[in-house]
Amino acid sequence: MGMPSTARRYTVDEVLAFPDDGNRYELVDGTLLVTPSPAQIHQLVAGRLYARLAAYLTPFHDVAQAFFAPADIIWGPDEYVQPDLFVVPVNEVTGDWRDCQTLLLAVEVVSPGSARADRLTKRRLYQRRGVATYWIVDADARLVEVWHPGDDRPEIVTGELRWRVMPDVEELVVSVQDLFSGLPPGAELRSSPASPPALPPPRP
Fold it and tell me: What domains does the chain contain, in order, with CATH numbers?
């Protein structure tokens, strides 16, 4: 099977039946989003954030759980995404990804092939679906955009990134400088040369 066309609409069942070719396939309103396998910096930054999230949530193991991609968020027959990281209430952790419906936090680490979808297409979907907090992590610019439902503009964070799983509990505090420190010299947020190129995302 060649790379699926983005010129037609798809359903979640069709996308889940695609063979594993190293790409990430997602759906927003039936429109197919295609992202190549992630680069090393993407994985390093996502891994650092996951480690901090997992450690922070340890005392709240009966409240929420963090996951990392590949993991399926399915909101309808034509809405299917795989955030790089996300946190859901523990009562939705049933062993079936379809039960994960309430994202307390979603995180996307920007790559050249995903920037437009992360900042526009998926951001609008996350806001529409009531994702409480959405972080767009930009390692090239050394910043994090923070979005909430109803926001017209993001908060741009270059100092300390803060989040709490419940009101009136201790915050998770992540130094943005530390998050991006010590990355491999000369490395770039690009896909491996062996990865198929990402198809351009659709116009909004």
Answer: 38-70+80-180 (3.90.1570.10)
